[in-house]
Design brief:
about 525 residues, mainly alpha, 18 helices, globular
Length: about 525
């Protein structure tokens, strides 16, 4: 089915394509940065809003939970009613929610408003990639996707740095005001430069599938996020995870019986699509779990300020961006499999090096781990993203983009929950508090920050216990990256690189093309 976009006329297409890429990347960077930017502002938030530790966790997690849960239906809406319209609506919701959040002092209201931001982000993120894949000619698409992947990977780190810089002179409210500014820039750019593309003759939206997907993902992600607080063996945690998985299994069965599903599970028969989805999920499992652990280490163990902690991450971004840009050339020369697997091995290597850190480690050891981590992320992201988008017909590019983004969001939420749980469990197990009153001991067990407030031997013991927990968490991240590398190597062992004979092919020719469903 042809796109409804209007082609640019005259000699301007190259310039217009560059402007489209800039605008969509600004929009993408805005919503991705918001996933991590508040991490460095949590101490300031706690002091001014009097939020509890649980409330602080949900101020961070509400965004990712809503974001992940709505990505698939939001992608389908963008397909049907227009990707440009989805961008405009999402940026408006995101900017308005950020403005309201900057004016509130109530933690519960802030949690709710972070959820509103997640609604806007769910409309924006899939629309950015699908706008690129439907606007750029095939010859330029790999380069544009590599830029998109670099921005998607580096924006969280840039958001941390920007927030740390703002907190040197202003309060946590400045983080939300930065969101407003970026959303306005992207909104104006979308109005001026981004063409519309849509598939208005698509079948009616699969409301039943959308509701099942949202219900299953909300239940599952909520239960996983709460698991570090309740405990992984807690009946409520186990029941929530079980119920979420059951609902998602029901979603799969429901979609298999639908003539026009929201996301056809048969797509995962395509080895490139399956490898891309798994790789993205595990990469961001590692990435956001690492950020969650590392920001605490830098500020609470090393004693860095918010700005210094954020600045410490720059070697990762500085390596990730150029490697991501160079990846299309490497893929063109060596194929998908080699660079992709090498990138995942690089991620595992970086995590292994960082797991050696202790309370007195020099910064050069941190940088030594960040370089292969950033290079590996940059090397693996572009082929994984391209594999997902190339597996779908053009009429479903927004849903494919949403699947790519869903893998990121779920991976990030699970990484924070699982690696955070490993950190917390090891911290409590290794914390030695002989002879302390029970109330004081409970406070020390609750967090490293509380233990530092008590001071003395308690603070020293807590620092040592935290480092032990960090070792376990980062080794868990390294193991996840190794699993991803092995899985991608196995899935792509006999699958040739996807090729298409023409830009307008509805289904790219792959080794598994005969297994793909028909999208009439």
């Amino acid at each position: 089915m042809p796109s409804t976009r209007t082609p640019a006329a005259g000699p301007a297409p190259a310039v217009r394509h560059n402007l489209v890429l800039v605008v969509t990347c600004v929009a993408l960077g805005t919503v991705v940065a918001a996933m991590a930017s508040l991490n460095v502002a949590l101490p300031d938030l706690a002091r001014e809003t009097h939020a509890t530790q649980t409330q602080l966790s949900w101020i961070i997690d509400a965004y990712s939970l809503v974001f992940a849960s709505l990505l698939l239906p939001a992608g389908a809406l963008g397909d049907r009613f227009g990707r440009r319209r989805a961008l405009l609506a999402g940026l408006t919701i995101f900017g308005a929610g950020s403005a309201a959040a900057a004016l509130t002092t109530d933690p519960s209201a802030l949690i709710a408003l972070r959820g509103v931001l997640g609604v806007g982000a769910a409309l924006v993120m899939p629309a950015t990639l699908s706008t690129i894949t439907t606007t750029f000619p095939r010859a330029q698409r790999a380069r544009a996707v590599s830029v998109w992947a670099a921005v998607a990977g580096a924006s969280a780190l840039v958001g941390l740095f920007a927030s740390g810089a703002l907190l040197e002179g202003w309060s946590w409210r400045s983080v939300f005001l930065l969101n407003v500014t970026l959303a306005l820039v992207a909104l104006v750019g979308t109005l001026l430069f981004v063409p519309e593309s849509a598939e208005p003759k698509q079948p009616r939206l699969d409301v039943g599938g959308a509701l099942l997907a949202v219900a299953g993902l909300v239940t599952l992600v909520y239960s996983v996020i709460e698991a570090p607080t309740r405990g992984w063996a807690d009946p409520v945690t186990l029941a929530g995870i079980g119920l979420g998985l059951a609902v998602l299994a029901g979603f799969v069965v429901f979609e298999l019986r639908r003539e026009n599903p929201l996301l056809d599970p048969r797509l995962f028969r395509n080895r490139h699509f399956a490898a891309g989805s798994l790789s993205i999920m595990l990469q961001f499992f590692v990435f956001f779990g690492f950020i969650f652990v590392m920001m605490q280490y830098l500020q609470l163990v090393r004693g860095d300020s918010a700005l210094m902690a954020a600045t410490a991450m720059l070697p990762m971004a500085a390596t990730m961006i150029p490697v991501s840009r160079a990846t299309p050339l490497l893929v063109g020369r060596f194929g998908f499999r080699g660079p992709w697997v090498a990138g995942l091995v690089g991620v595992a290597t970086g995590m292994g090096i960082l797991s050696l850190l202790d309370a007195s480690s020099p910064y050069w050891l941190i940088a030594t781990g960040l370089v292969p981590l950033g290079a590996g992320m940059g090397l693996a992201m572009t082929p994984a993203t391209t594999a997902i988008t190339d597996a779908l017909p053009r009429s479903l590019q927004n849903v494919g983009s949403a699947m790519n983004d869903l893998a990121r969001e779920l991976g990030g939420a699970l990484g924070i929950a699982v690696l955070g749980s490993l950190l917390s469990a090891a911290y409590r197990d290794h914390l030695s508090l002989p002879g302390l009153p029970e109330q004081v001991a409970d406070a020390a067990r609750s967090s490293l920050a509380a233990a530092h407030a008590i001071g003395g031997p308690v603070s020293e013991s807590a620092t040592s216990a935290f480092v032990d927990g960090m070792h376990l968490a980062l080794l868990g991240a390294a193991a996840a990256a190794v699993v991803a590398a092995v899985a991608v190597a196995a899935l792509l062992r006999s699958a040739p690189r996807p090729e298409a004979s023409a830009e307008d092919h509805e289904v790219p020719a792959t080794a598994d093309a005969q297994e793909q469903p028909s999208y009439g």
